[in-house]
Queue: 3 jobs
Job 1
Amino acid sequence: MDYATSAPIPGEKIVGMWQFNDDVAARFDTEARTHIPHYEHVIQMCLDVALHTHDRQTARVIDVGSATGYTLEQFFTAGFKCVQGVENAPSMIKRSRMRECVIFSDTFPRRGVFDVVLANWTLHFIRDRAAYIRDMYDAMSDGGTIILTDKMATNTLVRDQYHAWKRSVGVSAEEIARKEAALAGVLTTKPLEWYLESLRNVGFKDVRVMHEAYCFATLVARK
């Protein structure tokens, strides 16, 4: 998704050139697996949680930042009957496996009530993510489940280990540096504690960290 290009950060001196354009969309699936630790595992965890907590015949599932539709496809294949995505990058929607299920929007859909909300690797591109969390909460059913994964603010040691992992899966040092520069000021991080507090403040219950790897954390909570 390309939310971050809509407004600059006040006082930000360096803003990268990253956009979810045709070039990025064409290589997105490969890039996700080589830049996001345990990408497929996290999606499988989301599916396992949804299967455990909700009825696949009736649950309404939405994937925020649905990209090329891999997550939507996994849920549909597992038998979930009502799945949709929200995405604001036309290039991603054009390449989506499930584009007929995707809403083009910069904001969270207001219509309907959702039982499972997935917000993986997306909110860190959104400036006012606290407001977006509130919008997701307001659109969820009582007892609904949210699963959220983002890149978190961390220290140099963890960041260096993250870069070492990238190199171990074939990403060159030059590509690591290029992408980091392109994302500067576009992808912005907040501490894990900020996410835990923000989810609780809007009313989510039993907020837990379900998975962590290097700079990334996956949280699960119930409304």
Job 2
Amino acid sequence: MTTPFPLHFAGGRTAMALRVDQSRDLPAALTSLGLQASLPVVVLVGGAGGLDQADLDRLRPVFESGLVPVMTHLMGAAVDGGTWSGVMRLLGEARSGASADFPLVGVAAAGTVALPGGPPPREDAAPLDPDHTHFVLVPGDDWGDEAGWIAQVATDLADGRPSATVLVNGGEIAYSDVGRSLDAGRPVLTVAGSGRTADQLADAAQGRPADERAVALVKSGLVQAVPANDPGRLASVLSAVLTGPG
């Protein structure tokens, strides 16, 4: 585990970051970043590069009217993959647009992301999102290597408090992300109508034909579908999950 260091983004925005090599170091790492444990936590997973501008515009209310108001009201924390793309970018922009102050923690495999002002580790490295407040950089050179770490960071931050995963859109990696959350006993809200993997899980949750991987995940009994075109419904369900027993 390294010492926390600042990341300076354009426009004067700054986030604190830290590199972690062993999962057992995560609780100490989060403390050293100044993150308080025992918070209600939302894990956001889903579409990154697979969302075009029309998708982003259509899904923006999910974040502005659904996720961010709940996190602000409950004084919780959010955890995602931390890159300036897709649903992670939408959450960052919605948080900043609302002048919200809840922690937004990006967990990224170090070999897949470019730090501001530094050389990219690969040609297709993703820039980090400037609207996040904290970053945990973990080992890995492939997309998806961060999945288990995201789940563990959320568990450590919640520290017995309720947590939930919200799936918006998503590709192949989303199945792994959802599986990690379910393995941790974390309820999953899949946003129906947001596309791709989220729609497959929603179909499976509602008893319709779906990808066999989605059907298997829904058998956990922890997956619930909420409509993309009703962010108030997402807010209501999410709030109920996060204020229930841990």
Job 3
Amino acid sequence: MTKRTAVIVGATGAVGSKLTPLLAASQQYAKVIILHRRPTPFTKLAKVEERVIDFGALAAIPVEAGVEAVFCCVGTTQKKAGSTQAFQRVDRDIPVALARWAAAHKAGTFVTISSLGADPDSGSVYLKTKGEMEKGVAAAGVRATYILRPSLLKGERSEFRLAERVGNRALAIVGPLMIGPLRKYRAVRTQTVARAMLECAQRSQPGVHIVESDAVQDLGAASTVAGQRS
């Protein structure tokens, strides 16, 4: 297999901070490029390069030929962003712009994170924004597009989110009881999501693939097993 370049946006987030070292360790990629608004601590990793950019001008950001996969791990909250419009710029507009950028650079695969219940017609601003993001990403035209819909995330964060903390405690109690159709509502670890994203890129099947939370868990587990065998 020809070793290519992986590009990641959102490298310092809850999932991105787990995915970046996985990409750097992967034999599939000869180079990992981080696009970020400010310097990150990941340049010490082998194969990792960093480009500090203005996401408002993403379409004009040049990257050399050979981009194989683009990973989008951006995400915020309305409270942190300061307004609904600012939240939508991060959680909807950046992923869509990045997918279009990936298509323009002839990337073979685009992998992004959405949310369980995403729906462009939802009455929830959060779920509506995620649904609109999915629609825009799917229309960008990347050969293999994977949209992951994890349930509530559990794992280390650089910021405190009360709703997630409360939700994780509740799901820790009822999670084992969630089987069958309810399994997709179990909380999912950020490390599992990161491994699932890498597994999706390695499979890279043509088309637009919506990966529900239970499948995210399965893919993350498959990636872990594959890593132990390699």
